[in-house]
Amino acid sequence: MTAFALLIFIGGCVIFLQWYIGIRRLPVISNYPSDCLRDLPSVTVIVAVRDEEKNIYDSVYTLLNQNYCHLEIIVVNDRSTDHTLSLLNKLKASHINHDKLKIITISHLPAGWLGKNHALYQGFLQSKGEILLFTDGDIFFTKETLKRTVNYLISYNLDHLTLIPENKGGTLPYRAFHSYWSIIGIWNFIQLNHAGVGAFNMIRASVYRKIGTHESVALSPDDDLKLGKLIVSKGFRQQLGLGKDLVSVQWYQNIPEVIHGLEKNLFAFMRYRVLYVVLFSIVIFLFHVIPFIGLFTASFFAQLTFAAVISLYALMFTINARIFNDSSWFFLWVPINAFIFIFCLCRSAYKTIRNGGITWRGTRYPLKDLRKK
Q1: Which phi-psi region, left, alpha or beta, contains residue 272 (left: φ > 0; alpha: ψ -120 to 50)?
Q2: Which GO terms of the cellular component aspect does the record hold (predicted)?
Q3: Per-residue pLDDT tens for 168-206?
Q4: Do 174 and 85 form a contact (C-beta atoms < 8 A)?
């Protein structure tokens, strides 16, 4: 058991160093100037929405309030059945910058497309901006968001800038899980060497065309990550950053919403392969559950080693808390969140295989088609 504990400790040290070096390199874009360039390029913000009546008015309102001159906002209403469209029309009729807002309504989804990807692509087809920002209908922006991000993108000669938004609200168990999720997510981006965040994907329009647009990821539930991979593989310059004080979202409210929300994505992250699901679940269990069990059940020297592993986690969560304004004590939730994550992952795989595909927002996508992408 001592040798096993030592292996987990060594692995934990490697992961910690990878994560720490990576997160230290992530720029906080709000710390950079918003006025270093005089002539800013035109920007088109493209928002894909379906049944987003809860947030759509306030979200698009923050876009219309941007301190940015050369701006158009295209909201693509993808077959909504709630009050999304009426709220958008109300906003367009009342806001002082209503001329910047264009509303497109889609009533039919062609074969071979995921709804959101198709909506974003349709928005692109009607866009005029030199720079595109793909985002969601529940994201909120401060007035300086576009100025600062475009200045950063141009100043550092980037082709793609994607930001991790601030996460707001939710129950205590949800906040603890999100803290755990953010650490895993950033480490995953570091290992992949590419990134993409659906809340904020800013890309030069010329580059978007060269990588094949959303047509190249038409059936990918993780389109943001797949686009990021294409951008890097084609030799373009990409930067992942932190959207603190610029971009925010309430991802979910509670754990049941997390479980339901991750249903369509997690198996896709595993490339729809059961073997990857099994291996990743085992790794999560070994690294995030066993040390907490072994702390009370193993031999003395193994206990000391497991205590060192847990101390590493405490340090990671302390650093993470300073960045994302969460509690450093969430490291105590690691084994609970590991079980939640494994459950979400296995549930995503099981439901996708059992149903022969995924059903998302009223549309079914066959597994055989998803695997093609």
Answers
A1: left
A2: plasma membrane
A3: 889 999 999 999 999 999 999 999 999 999 999 999 999
A4: no
